Amino acid sequence: MTATVAMLSLWRDDVDRRLAERATHLLGKTYPALRWIWVVGDCEDDTETQLRAIAATAAHEDKSVEIVRHDTGIVRRTPDDRFRAAGESMNAALDRVRATDDYVLIHESDLQTSHGVIQQLLKSDRCPIGGWPYLESCGPSFFYDTWAYRRDGVRFTNGPPYHRCYRADEPFEVDSVGSVWMMHAADIRAGVRCDAEGCVDLCRGMRVRGRSIWVDPRVSVMQPTDLWVPYAG
């Protein structure tokens, strides 16, 4: 039997940030037993209205897209504010994981991956597992997610050798990942959730449950430069 996957993405004030193109990209994943959960909130534009229209169209193509409205009320002045707001929003998505889901895939809505990214991650036979995020303008040699990817308390660097745990051609173990990554739905049903550090909290909770966290550097995750919002920290 084909394992079922719930794919989670967050949206906020995205009308002028290639919203339709990004939604089409997410809906283009080819995994057969897939449903989408999109959380939208704290918006000052028509992001929610446009996403609901896209979801209605997708339903005619037998694609299940659930739109979840969740307003945090957090004013995002600092990186810590952003992490708290994102964590609260992601928890709203995680609360929609079903008893029938086998895996959960977090896929940030502005990132780009192959149509078969779910098959790529499952093929590794490791879980939780994330891909290799890089900044579009710099290419795959420029590692992007230096905040979430850590091992032994040390964050990855943007350039080689990245971290002493890094391997170029095979999965390697880390303490935490982010951006685009897959986990067991059972851990979510057991109550693993975000706190102030978002995906780092999720990974910590999964390690407490005995999971090892992995990265497959062969799974490319591209951050478009024009959608990139840098932060200090």
CATH architecture: Alpha-Beta Complex
Q: What is the count of helical runs?
A: 6
What is the total tally of β strands? Answer: 10
CATH topology annotation: Spore Coat Polysaccharide Biosynthesis Protein SpsA, Chain A
Q: Could you name the CATH class?
A: Alpha Beta
Note the topology:
Layout: E1 5-11, H1 19-27, E2 34-40, H2 47-59, E3 65-69, H3 79-94, E4 103-107, H4 117-123, E5 129-135, E6 150-151, E7 154-155, E8 172-174, E9 180-184, H5 185-189, H6 199-208, E10 213-223
Parallel strand pairs: 1-2, 1-4, 2-3, 5-10
Antiparallel strand pairs: 4-9, 5-9, 6-7, 8-10
Helix pairs in contact: 1-2
How would you characterize this protein structure?
It is a single chain. The protein is α/β, with parallel strands linked by helices and 233 residues long. The protein has one domain (5-227): Spore Coat Polysaccharide Biosynthesis Protein SpsA, Chain A. Helix content is 26%, strand content 23%. The strands form two sheets. An eight-stranded mixed sheet has the order 3-2-1-4-9-5-10-8, sandwiched between helices. α1 packs parallel to α2. The protein is globular and about 45 Å long. It starts with a strand and ends in a 10-residue tail after the last strand. 39% of the residues are buried.
